[in-house]
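Explain this fold:

***
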Amino acid sequence: MDVTVLAGAWLTCALSGVVPWISAEVALVGAAMLLPSGTLPLLVAGSAMCQVAGKGAVYTLARWAPQRLPSRATRALGRMSRHRLERRRLLPLTALSAACGLPPFYLVTLAAGLLGLPLAGFVGASLFGTAIRYSILVWAAAALGIASP
Protein backbone atom coordinates (compact mmCIF):
# COMPACT_ATOMS: atom_id res chain seq x y z
CA MET A 1 0.00 0.00 0.00
CA ASP A 2 2.80 2.45 0.84
CA VAL A 3 4.26 2.15 -2.66
CA THR A 4 0.87 2.80 -4.23
CA VAL A 5 0.29 5.89 -2.08
CA LEU A 6 3.75 7.24 -2.87
CA ALA A 7 3.33 6.56 -6.60
CA GLY A 8 -0.06 8.26 -6.60
CA ALA A 9 1.27 11.33 -4.82
CA TRP A 10 4.27 11.54 -7.13
CA LEU A 11 2.13 11.18 -10.25
CA THR A 12 -0.26 13.85 -9.01
CA CYS A 13 2.68 16.19 -8.30
CA ALA A 14 4.09 15.63 -11.79
CA LEU A 15 0.71 16.32 -13.38
CA SER A 16 0.17 19.41 -11.24
CA GLY A 17 3.42 20.78 -12.59
CA VAL A 18 1.86 20.87 -16.05
CA VAL A 19 -1.83 21.38 -15.23
CA PRO A 20 -2.11 24.25 -12.74
CA TRP A 21 -5.57 23.42 -11.38
CA ILE A 22 -4.48 20.01 -10.08
CA SER A 23 -3.55 20.43 -6.41
CA ALA A 24 -0.29 18.76 -5.46
CA GLU A 25 -0.74 20.01 -1.91
CA VAL A 26 -4.00 18.11 -1.40
CA ALA A 27 -2.39 14.92 -2.72
CA LEU A 28 0.64 15.44 -0.49
CA VAL A 29 -1.38 15.95 2.70
CA GLY A 30 -3.63 13.03 1.76
CA ALA A 31 -0.61 10.80 1.26
CA ALA A 32 0.90 12.03 4.55
CA MET A 33 -2.30 10.92 6.28
CA LEU A 34 -1.92 7.39 4.94
CA LEU A 35 1.83 6.84 5.23
CA PRO A 36 3.88 5.98 8.31
CA SER A 37 6.08 8.81 9.54
CA GLY A 38 9.26 7.03 8.44
CA THR A 39 8.30 7.39 4.79
CA LEU A 40 7.44 11.10 4.93
CA PRO A 41 10.92 12.31 3.89
CA LEU A 42 10.66 10.04 0.84
CA LEU A 43 7.22 11.49 0.13
CA VAL A 44 8.56 15.05 0.28
CA ALA A 45 11.67 14.39 -1.82
CA GLY A 46 9.90 12.37 -4.49
CA SER A 47 6.97 14.77 -4.70
CA ALA A 48 9.26 17.79 -5.07
CA MET A 49 11.26 16.07 -7.82
CA CYS A 50 8.10 15.07 -9.68
CA GLN A 51 6.64 18.58 -9.40
CA VAL A 52 9.85 20.08 -10.78
CA ALA A 53 9.89 17.51 -13.59
CA GLY A 54 6.41 18.68 -14.59
CA LYS A 55 7.47 22.31 -14.38
CA GLY A 56 10.51 21.38 -16.45
CA ALA A 57 8.18 20.37 -19.28
CA VAL A 58 6.45 23.77 -19.11
CA TYR A 59 9.82 25.54 -18.94
CA THR A 60 11.05 23.59 -21.98
CA LEU A 61 7.95 24.45 -23.98
CA ALA A 62 8.34 28.14 -23.17
CA ARG A 63 12.06 28.11 -23.88
CA TRP A 64 12.27 26.14 -27.11
CA ALA A 65 8.76 26.27 -28.58
CA PRO A 66 7.13 29.51 -27.38
CA GLN A 67 4.81 29.60 -30.40
CA ARG A 68 3.09 26.47 -29.02
CA LEU A 69 2.04 28.17 -25.78
CA PRO A 70 -1.69 28.70 -25.24
CA SER A 71 -2.82 32.19 -26.27
CA ARG A 72 -3.87 33.01 -22.70
CA ALA A 73 -0.36 32.30 -21.41
CA THR A 74 1.19 34.33 -24.23
CA ARG A 75 -1.03 37.34 -23.41
CA ALA A 76 -0.20 37.15 -19.71
CA LEU A 77 3.50 36.97 -20.44
CA GLY A 78 3.19 39.87 -22.87
CA ARG A 79 1.78 42.01 -20.08
CA MET A 80 4.54 40.83 -17.77
CA SER A 81 7.27 41.54 -20.35
CA ARG A 82 6.80 45.26 -19.76
CA HIS A 83 8.64 44.72 -16.51
CA ARG A 84 11.36 42.60 -18.16
CA LEU A 85 12.86 40.86 -15.21
CA GLU A 86 16.58 40.50 -15.38
CA ARG A 87 17.79 36.92 -15.38
CA ARG A 88 19.77 37.40 -12.17
CA ARG A 89 16.60 38.51 -10.35
CA LEU A 90 14.57 35.68 -11.83
CA LEU A 91 16.49 32.96 -9.96
CA PRO A 92 15.51 34.09 -6.41
CA LEU A 93 12.01 34.87 -7.68
CA THR A 94 11.74 31.29 -8.95
CA ALA A 95 12.73 29.88 -5.54
CA LEU A 96 10.32 32.23 -3.75
CA SER A 97 7.47 31.39 -6.11
CA ALA A 98 8.10 27.65 -5.72
CA ALA A 99 8.14 28.01 -1.94
CA CYS A 100 5.01 30.12 -1.46
CA GLY A 101 3.17 30.32 -4.78
CA LEU A 102 3.41 34.10 -5.13
CA PRO A 103 3.82 35.15 -7.85
CA PRO A 104 2.15 32.10 -9.40
CA PHE A 105 4.78 29.44 -10.01
CA TYR A 106 3.26 28.52 -13.38
CA LEU A 107 3.76 32.07 -14.71
CA VAL A 108 7.26 32.28 -13.25
CA THR A 109 8.08 28.98 -14.97
CA LEU A 110 6.89 30.36 -18.32
CA ALA A 111 8.85 33.56 -17.77
CA ALA A 112 12.00 31.62 -16.86
CA GLY A 113 11.77 29.68 -20.11
CA LEU A 114 11.04 32.72 -22.27
CA LEU A 115 13.76 34.83 -20.69
CA GLY A 116 16.33 32.05 -21.04
CA LEU A 117 17.09 31.34 -17.39
CA PRO A 118 19.62 28.49 -17.49
CA LEU A 119 17.95 25.11 -17.01
CA ALA A 120 20.24 24.10 -14.12
CA GLY A 121 19.43 27.31 -12.25
CA PHE A 122 15.72 26.90 -12.86
CA VAL A 123 15.73 23.28 -11.67
CA GLY A 124 17.85 24.07 -8.59
CA ALA A 125 15.77 27.06 -7.48
CA SER A 126 12.51 25.23 -8.19
CA LEU A 127 13.56 22.12 -6.31
CA PHE A 128 14.77 24.16 -3.34
CA GLY A 129 11.54 26.16 -3.05
CA THR A 130 9.24 23.21 -3.70
CA ALA A 131 11.01 21.03 -1.14
CA ILE A 132 10.60 23.76 1.47
CA ARG A 133 6.87 24.13 0.74
CA TYR A 134 6.25 20.39 0.77
CA SER A 135 8.29 19.90 3.96
CA ILE A 136 6.20 22.51 5.74
CA LEU A 137 2.97 20.90 4.57
CA VAL A 138 4.01 17.43 5.69
CA TRP A 139 5.42 18.75 8.97
CA ALA A 140 2.13 20.59 9.62
CA ALA A 141 0.13 17.43 8.89
CA ALA A 142 2.33 15.50 11.36
CA ALA A 143 2.21 18.25 13.99
CA LEU A 144 -1.57 18.43 13.82
CA GLY A 145 -1.77 14.70 14.20
CA ILE A 146 -3.14 14.20 10.70
CA ALA A 147 -0.25 12.01 9.55
CA SER A 148 -0.07 8.34 10.49
CA PRO A 149 2.16 7.38 13.45
Remarks:
- Residues 29 and 137 are 7 Å apart (CA to CA).
- The radius of gyration is 16 Å.
